[in-house]
Structures
1.
Amino acid sequence: MTERHLRAVLAEAERVAEQYDQIAQTTNSPTHEYLRYAVLRLLEGDANAIPEEVPQVDGVTVGYGRDQAMYDSWGSDVEWWDTVPPQDDCTRFRVFYPEDQTPVPRGILTVMAALRAWRVWEGNAATCGSYDHRERREVHFLWPEGNLAEALLENRIQEIGSAVAPDGGQAGDVRDRMLVSDGSTSADDLEPRTKRAVEEAMTVSLLAKGGRYEVEAASGNRYEVDIIGQSCTCSDWQQRAPDGGCKHMRRVDHEIKQGQVPRPDGQLPPQV
């Protein structure tokens, strides 16, 4: 790895922070989220400008989630944790690429090395959670929160926090911002159960492409919502399956519509 590779990742993360800061609204580590999306955009060829120093990989796709959350969902079904047990406060990147490209394409290794992530698993993608990646391979990397790249990015975007938000908080603290789409609905106009779900203290993040989200309640409990398959791991949904969904499903649906979290296909919300 050279410093120019890291600069390429930081530059794309800075663009994400400036143009799509709503993706980190519900996270405790905004810079970590910006960098995760920088990796996704660079490897999938969606970056505003692809730097020459980042070799491109045809047919690559990227998924990611908290390592512990993935383990809680698939720990008994896959072999990923046989060598390295689930890690707290770590992102697991799952990078898929064509089966005929061996060894792991250099572009993937270059970008992940720039983040100082470490490789922990490699194999056929026909495993749990990879139904749409049959006949492909995947390689996994672990990357901790609070890393050097986050500190470097924070220095680059510190000017974003200079303006004072209407609620008295800092505009740069994305948790204090409510960025909504043109067609958004006021909380006062929502159905009562949805209104309560929106007003309750919860955080929502995309767990995996395909519509799987993680909801963390104020109690610290975490639930997995499949917004496409219409399911939730909470006891309310498991026992009653209430009409319109449990409060976690309602909250995820609302935040997707408001553009506060990535869409089920993993794409960023429209720029506001």
2.
Amino acid sequence: MLRLGIDIDGTVTAQDTFVPYLNESFQCAITLDDMTEYDLTKLLKISNEEFWGWMDQHEPLIYKQAKPAEGAKVILDQMKHHHKLIYITARRQHHTDVTYTWFQENHVHYDDIELVGGHHKLEAVQKHKIDVFFEDHHGNATMIAKEADIPVILFNSPYNQMPIDDRIIRVNNWQEASQWIKQYEQRLQTAY
């Protein structure tokens, strides 16, 4: 049984979740393809303070209404029988209730959820003894792969196209992620 560490936003939820809210608030017409950096302030031509003011106002509704990524629920339902599913998210602590409610309303299994309140997930990864991590943020994936020395499955997106090292596995969807996990388990069993 592997202990799987799983990011939520852009990994379990659809990567374009924020797009309609951004377009409405900032009177623009961006798409996921326009989001070539994780930091959206340049794309929106706003300051960091303006962005976080907007996030403070809109995050609860966005998190509440987020759609699961295509295939995520089916694959996670299969994985829950063989692995521990531990969600480690950059969401801030005051979003705990909306986060748990989303998992319950969408019938997505979890063994644990930790809101770390920022992009430094390494401590939580180590605390939970994570074997493989699922992420969409390039910086997080790189740090976790290097510092925790574990494989990181990186969900392909326009905003994470920087080079990756050999501990990072780029996938396009949850089916590819599941296939990689099955092959990884087989390699581990063969090694013992």
3.
Amino acid sequence: MSVTTPEERTPNATATLRSGSLGTADIAFFVVSAAAPLTVMAGVAPLAILLGGIGAPAGYLIAGITLAVFAVGFTTMSRHVKSGGAFYAYITRGLGRPVGIGAALLALIGYNGMEIGVYGLLASAAKDTLHALFGADVPWLPISLAGLLVIGYGGFRSIDFGAKVLGVLLAAETGILVLLAGGVLVKGGAHGLSGASFAPGHVLVSGTAVVLAFAFAAFTGFESTVIYRREARDPERTVPRATYVAIGFLGLFYAFVVWIVIQAFGNAGVVAAAAKDPGGLFFSAITTYVGSWAADLMHVFIVTSVIASLLAFHNAINRYVLALAEEGVLPKAMGRVHPRHRSPYVAGIAQTVLGAVVVVAFWAAGADPYSQLLLWVNTPGMIGLFTLQLLVAIAVPCYFRRVSHQEGTVRTVVAPIAAALLLATAIGLVITHIDLFTGASDSVNTALIVIAPAVFVLGVALAWWLRRRRPQVYADFAAEPAEQP
């Protein structure tokens, strides 16, 4: 028998997010789930091997190290910035309100792009799974719409409910990859186990630049740890720990799994195998080393991996919208919190409707769910989030120059500047190899690249409008929130 609190029984009470709900593991589940490790490995890692050779695992380690350097300044600043606005709050404190409001708009577009595009991946993955297991051919639109309803319900429920769901789904998708690894290690791979993937001669090759572009994209969403600050237990410790746990796990796990699949086919044979059937590389490996039943499970778990990623991004978007509604930049109605579940349910409904509109529009245009809905919507979102990371890295030393603090120079100057240089390089790699992400024409790629800077400029223009027409909203933007009861 459940017990309701006075706040839950009082419909007119002003509900807030449920503080103290999430521990380090819960937040890490949200972040790692957003990255969709199984989907990234089975769907993208074969291309990294094909284009970068057997040195591909090192690319994921390099990307992880870069983002760990970024996290040094990022988590240091998180001890001083209490806002639920995450990226835009950090950027505002360091670089000023116009840049911060531009970043806020860019964050909305970036996170929505990362989520809505993935409904195309859900449809594609589910179609493939149903065909592989049952020989059924199902239209993709009903799958995407069903996914929207499932994710909308998950976001409507309490945040700890979402954390439990993600914990189960993440265990499933990582477990099947661990099962593959166990089979390869026990049988010694195709020709014995080799550490050649990490030798300089195989890492320092021209194809590594392409691998790095894929590798950085595989970490997308890791920074969302700070979005859950208001719902975290002891956020001063929980948020930084969750950030490092997520980066460390993803970097090491990605590198290990890519190395495993290379061992499964052998250093001399893996590139040819990836060229012959990139989409089937992991399925072929697990069939050989574990069994066909495991390949069937992998098909199912890829679908659940995508669902986990969607739920994680959905929750992150809802909290960004909630924060901007509380700032007065978005309508106040978007800031309503459900009295029982303590979730930003109006923001969730709005996000679900927006997702449905985009999905139906692509379907009506006769678009492919994978090559167009996923890739064309995801890519500008990914560029937008990379840009936000770069702006945060620049904002950290600017912020600490203006405030009194006891933090060390390495954390507040050296690491952020190094991260900014590395992230700028990563953005350059993604943009110069964007055709590998989209498979689109030059004109489409140009349009996709331009979206992020155009949205940022619109955000800066919005800031100027707010300063003239709504000066109080502008003055209070990204201010420190009152303590939650």
